[in-house]
Amino acid sequence: MRVVWIAIIAVCAIPLAYVAWLANPLFMLVAGVEQWLERMERLYPYRWWILFLIVVCVFSVAVYTAAYG
Prior knowledge:
- The protein has 4 helices and no strands.
- By secondary structure, the protein is mainly alpha-helical.
């Protein structure tokens, strides 16, 4: 069962890491404000999906920590 929780965490964390990379404000310094704002606008339609991933990832980490901590 431990492997299942680790898999759930990984499946949630990989897209969140990509979103974090896109939303990174340091990217604004490198690429410019216009390109950073464009990337933020492209993420807007997926805001509920991103929120769902965050909730699932936090829940999975909490259950894994409580069970196998």
